[in-house]
Amino acid sequence: MTAPARRRILLVAHPRRQEAHDLAAGVVQRLHDAGIEVVVQSDEAAAVNLSAQDGVTLANADNPAEGCELVCVLGGDGTILRGAEMSRGTGAPLLGVNLGHVGFLAEAEREDISATVEHIVARTYTVEERMTLDVTAKVDGSPVYTSWALNEVTVEKANRERMLEVVAEIDGRPLTTWGCDGAVVATPTGSTAYAFSAGGPVVWPDVEALLLVPISAHALFARPLVVGPQSHLALEVVPDTLGTGALWCDGRRAVDLPPGARIEVVRSQTPVRLARLSRSPFTDRLVAKFDLNIHGWRGQARREEAARNGRPTPPA
């Protein structure tokens, strides 16, 4: 009989956080003891002081998640987005352990690391797919840049002292022209990130939609828009505008935009797969991450909890 293939996990850790270094060493040891091979990128291995003596294997530089069943990330949302770049399209789901502040993309917190490793070893997690965006920048009709985003695609002014003039287009028809600081095209996953800061709505992750949110627009019609997942969105930098722009994908990948540039954004056919350790509602995640005040809630679940604990039942 052929021996079963050894399990492989790609570990991604924040390179400049000592806490990430310390946690990474412990995670490697526990996974190694469970017979799971831990793969780390070479530059990251040096940054977090991991070597073959610690039981790690150096990853393929071109495809770090190759042959891995999971990508485990120790860090904040920025590090998790970096892990998403490695996992997308490989089939390996992404599991984030939050070492940052909000950590909306993370599934676990730093204090949950022991239980998280146990879930990885036992494979007791579910996987959900999150929509991503494909973006193409064109100049004079010719593509000059292509990329993708999990959270958002942003067109921003490059000069702080000058406004950017942008024409918004939906499904091949012009909508409006904004004199603005920029505009955000976001996924439901990204609705709690930059789009939220720009005044956009929070969209539940199981809703299939695209968001278009202007940033500090000087216009009467400057409300955020929610459109269907098959819509084609475009933003054109007006040629005679005084300012130049920049295109950002997830705040990580950028390219300068000259006046007249056209940015086209559509739903991608390649999602990012996220590993989930619990089935708690998105409402609970929202309350926890934003520390929302729910004092005074008298829902059925609260009454049932009070009854189980022998406390007085709140009135309906």
Automatic annotation (TrEMBL):
Q: Which residues form the active site?
A: 77
Question: What's the catalysed reaction?
Answer: NAD(+) + ATP = ADP + NADP(+) + H(+)
Instruction: Tell me the keywords, alphabetical order.
Output: ATP-binding, Cytoplasm, Kinase, NAD, NADP, Nucleotide-binding, Transferase
Subcellular location(s) per record: Cytoplasm
Cofactor section: a divalent metal cation
Q: Name one Pfam family in it.
A: NAD_kinase
EC number(s)?
Answer: 2.7.1.23
Please give the NCBIfam families that the UniProt record associates with this protein.
PRK03372.1 (NF002892)
Q: Which family does it belong to?
A: Belongs to the NAD kinase family.
Report the PANTHER family cross-referenced here.
Answer: NAD KINASE
Q: What role is this protein assigned?
A: Involved in the regulation of the intracellular balance of NAD and NADP, and is a key enzyme in the biosynthesis of NADP. Catalyzes specifically the phosphorylation on 2'-hydroxyl of the adenosine moiety of NAD to yield NADP.
The protein's name is NAD kinase
